[in-house]
TrEMBL record:
Ribonucleoprotein as UniProt keyword: no
Keyword set includes Oxidoreductase: yes
Top EC class, one word: oxidoreductase
Pathway annotation: Nucleotide-sugar biosynthesis; UDP-alpha-D-glucuronate biosynthesis; UDP-alpha-D-glucuronate from UDP-alpha-D-glucose: step 1/1
GO molecular function: oxidoreductase activity
Pfam families: UDPG_MGDP_dh (PF00984), UDPG_MGDP_dh_C (PF03720), UDPG_MGDP_dh_N (PF03721)
Protein name in UniProt: UDP-glucose 6-dehydrogenase
Listed NCBIfam families: NDP-sugDHase (TIGR03026)
Gene3D superfamilies per UniProt: Cytochrome c1, transmembrane anchor, C-terminal, NAD(P)-binding Rossmann-like Domain
Organism: Ideonella lacteola
Family membership: Belongs to the UDP-glucose/GDP-mannose dehydrogenase family.
InterPro entries per UniProt: 6-PGluconate_DH-like_C_sf, NAD(P)-bd_dom_sf, UDP-Glc/GDP-Man, UDP-Glc/GDP-Man_DH_C, UDP-Glc/GDP-Man_DH_C_sf, UDP-Glc/GDP-Man_DH_dimer, UDP-Glc/GDP-Man_DH_N, UDPglc_DH_bac
Residue ranges of coiled coil: none
Length: 449
């Protein structure tokens, strides 16, 4: 099939690459010329396991192309996927300006029937807005062309995006249109060969399912984070509690990890957007407000532990920071808890030596923006180093923010020697407390005393 993907970010690029892998001819469009240049030069602009090989292979086969040429992209695809960003507006609602711009481009330039597929995470009712924008552009041109609009929300996780797309738990298609249903069923058939995991529903339910899924997952995490505070106060161990409840199939083992708070490009903004939608519908969500409030507090949990130990004034203290990305296996720094932790520790006078296996460049960029108003002497107390060991040099204590695999089994003896205060603040519960303490280290983790 001929496919156009509009927006070549985390979702658009993975979608384009995976669809081309199944033999489709895909053109990926972006307005960011730098991204397209990198892709046309054989690179990829993000870190995502397995994606580079997939892109290279399919680009070499001529099935995957990258362009900034809007007329060419609109002319190419029978199916036009919209995978542009939907960041939060000032009031928390999803900003649909990029979705609308993409829809208008299609309406302005299309000359044959198009199936327009909303893959971006968009509020209920957006398909109607896309339909209206396309119809408006066609009317301006005085052209009468039929088109379909479908919803196909994406459920991939960063760091496992290719795997999630190639072997999805489910694919949701929201459509009220026979032609769109047939085309999308055919397109996705190779991805659901062994199990019928393709769910066709009405458009609004499909749009809503995406927010419902992310809100449910974020709720689990905030609930566990709240329980972890209580566990700590009561002398229970949240890791044992997690196993104790997760073995109940009604609860399940996934997404029950207490930590330094959830981040990323989806949960924070989707929780806010759902709260906004609920308020607009006259049904304010107490749950979403609580999920968000707990998460905001949780991003400060490591800072609170550090302050409890050393006091508010951290000048003269040096901390090694392991992990900056919002989760492992990605270089995405959007809403990463590390950004809050870095700002709060610097503000209290600490010196930081930060290491992340892949997110350092992106972290340098976004943290520079975060600290834009700070004095140079504050900003200069943050140094990025190129290894986990280098971060420990002359450090008083270690702070673990992201659970990269390379942090999982460190040389504890070397840690005890390197850290002046022999102390670890672990925001991801990577180690067995008894084991670490056996090396003479003071070990503070989440929800465990
Ligand atoms: P992103 O910021 O990585 O990529 C969006 C891209 O769209 C950018 O490269 C931008 O330049 C481009 N763009 C903007 N306007 C355009 C236009 N008019 N024409 C062409 N390109 C345009 O965003 P993302 O993380 O890929 O997210 C995209 C959507 O998918 C969002 O709605 C998000 O909520 C949703 N989503 C994201 C994830 C994820 O893990 N990142 C997972 C599921 C769903
Ligand atoms: C999420 C959804 O999982 C995915 O289905 C959707 O398409 C996009 O949003 P993503 O943001 O890439 O994916 O990562 P995810 O693995 O969900 O983690 C999100 C955040 O929650 C991370 O900061 C992670 O550290 C945190 N998390 C996750 C926890 O704190 N505890 C957990 O048990 C799981």
């Amino acid at each position: 099939m001929k496919i156009t993907v509009i927006g070549t970010g985390y979702v658009g690029l993975v979608t384009g690459a995976c669809l081309s892998e199944m033999g489709n001819h895909v053109v990926c469009l972006d307005v960011d010329a730098r991204k397209i240049e990198i892709l046309n030069a054989g690179g990829i602009p993000i870190h995502e396991p397995g994606l580079q090989e997939l892109v290279r292979r399919n680009a070499a086969a001529g099935r995957l192309e990258f362009t900034t040429d809007i007329p060419r992209a609109v002319a190419h695809g029978t199916l036009q996927f919209i995978a542009v960003g939907t960041p939060p507006d000032e009031d928390g609602s999803a900003d649909l300006q990029y979705v609308t711009a993409a829809a208008r481009n299609i309406g302005r330039l299309m000359t044959d029937h198009k199936v327009i597929v909303d893959k971006s995470t968009v509020p209920v009712g957006t398909a109607d807005k896309v339909r209206a924008a396309v119809a408006d552009e066609l009317a301006r041109r005085g052209v009468d062309l039929a088109f379909s609009v479908a919803s196909n929300p994406e459920f991939l996780k960063e760091g496992a995006a290719v795997e999630d797309f190639m072997r999805p738990d489910r694919i949701i298609i929201g459509t009220d249109d026979e032609r769109a249903t047939l085309l999308l069923r055919a397109l996705y058939a190779p991805f659901v060969r062994n199990h019928d995991r393709l769910l066709v529903m009405d458009v609004k339910s499909a749009e809503f399912s995406k927010y419902a899924a992310n809100a449910m997952l974020a709720t689990r995490i905030s609930f566990m984070n709240e329980l972890s505070r209580l566990a700590e106060a009561l002398g229970a161990d949240i890791e044992q509690v997690r196993v104790g409840i997760g073995s109940d199939p009604r609860i399940g083992t996934h997404f029950l990890y207490a930590g330094a708070g959830y981040g990323g490009s989806c949960f924070p903004k989707d929780v806010k957007a759902l709260a906004r939608t609920a308020a607009e519908a006259g049904l304010p969500s107490k749950m979403m407000a609580a999920v968000e409030a707990v998460n905001e507090e949780q991003k400060l949990v490591l800072v609170r532990k550090i302050v409890a130990q050393y006091g508010e004034d951290l000048s003269g203290k040096t901390f090694a920071l392991w992990g900056l990305a919002f989760k492992p296996n990605t270089d995405d720094m959007r809403e990463a808890p590390s950004r809050v932790i870095v700002a709060e520790l610097l503000r209290r006078g600490a010196t930081l030596q930060a290491y992340d296996p892949v997110a350092a460049d992106e972290a340098r960029r976004v943290i520079a923006l975060d600290l834009g108003d700070e004095k140079p002497e504050t900003r200069d107390r943050l140094r990025f180093v190129s290894s986990a060991t280098a971060a420990l040099a002359q450090a008083d204590a270690l702070v673990i923010v992201t659970e990269w695999k390379e942090f999982r089994t460190p040389d504890f003896e070397a840690l005890a020697q390197a850290l002046a205060d022999r102390r670890i603040f672990d925001g991801r519960n990577l180690y067995n407390p008894a084991l670490v303490r056996g090396f003479g280290l003071d070990y503070r983790s989440i929800g465990r005393s």
